[in-house]
Amino acid sequence: MSNLVEIRDLRVDFPTPTGFTQAVRGISFSLGREKLGIVGESGSGKSVTGRALMRLLPEAARVRAGALRFDGIDVLNASERQMRDLRGGRIGLIMQDPKFSLNPVMTVGRQISEAWLAHQKGGKREAREAALALLEQVRIRDPQRVLESYPHEVSGGMGQRVMIAMMLAPNPDLLIADEPTSALDASVQAEILKLIEDLVSARGMGLMLISHDLPLVSRFCDRVVVMYAGQVMEELPARDLHRARHAYTRGLLECMPSLSHKRARLPTLSRDASWLEPRA
Ligand SMILES: Nc1ncnc2c1ncn2[C@@H]1O[C@H](COP(=O)(O)OP(=O)(O)O)[C@@H](O)[C@H]1O
Ligand SMILES: [Mg+2]
């Protein structure tokens, strides 16, 4: 399987008044047309990793890597034009809250049409037909009405479906979903993740699903990369999660509340200072 994404020894530092903080400290992994979960607690460097791949980090960030490639393209040295082709074209990004990504003064239909027109060949009528078809693909029941709606007129779950439709419009090779359901009710979460999973499989795309929720991610991904403090602690097939060796991974699993096994109290995740040491 040829790799869509190749990341080797990625390091990202941010300047602070007292020096640089190391947000990502030498991580490596690759991704083909498969579903990969990036999991870790808040602040572990998951979003920074996804953004580094799209070269979306602030100017001040210092990004270094042995390799940071998308489909063979060297992201660190690519031209701005090449990057525009990747962002929102070959790589779609879905974030936590669609309210911040959708334009509040433009109808849903126009936003999806414009995303389509920016990367596909055809006129306005084709774009509108494509937008309608995309809304159907993301299982919106009344696509004609939603096409005419403004973002504030749709619910959170619906907004996320619209975001997915917009990201799929250019027919991307990779979808990066960064906590795509963290702002949604639990009942809607599973539906949206199932939708993403189905669309990614049907289109043969790659998926990078970023989340703090290890059990949730393992249900929808083939493979899981576990991050802690800017490093990869462990990488394993989702089905082997119960065999996770690293204490941090086991801790993430055990700290999740479960409806099936009632517990008097949840364990707290204990951390070991040795996890912070640079890993081989
Ligand atoms: N623009 C920024 N400036 C300074 N520090 C940042 C910036 N973005 C992220 N960081 C820091 O990098 C670390 C990793 O952040 P992030 O990747 O967002 O974590 P998460 O795993 O929760 O997605 C955090 O310590 C965060 O404070
Ligand atoms: Mg994040």
Automatic annotation (TrEMBL):
Gene3D superfamilies: P-loop containing nucleotide triphosphate hydrolases (3.40.50.300). One of its GO terms (cellular component) is plasma membrane. The keyword Plastid does not apply. It is found in: Cell inner membrane. Keywords: ATP-binding, Cell membrane, Membrane, Nucleotide-binding, Transport. It comes from the Bacteria. GO terms for molecular function: ATP binding; ATP hydrolysis activity. Signal peptide: none annotated. GO terms for biological process: transmembrane transport. It is a peripheral membrane protein. Residues 5-254 form the ABC transporter domain. The keyword rRNA processing does not apply. Its main location: membrane. Belongs to the ABC transporter superfamily. This is ABC transporter ATP-binding protein. It comes from Teichococcus coralli. The lineage of its organism: Bacteria, Pseudomonadati, Pseudomonadota, Alphaproteobacteria, Acetobacterales.
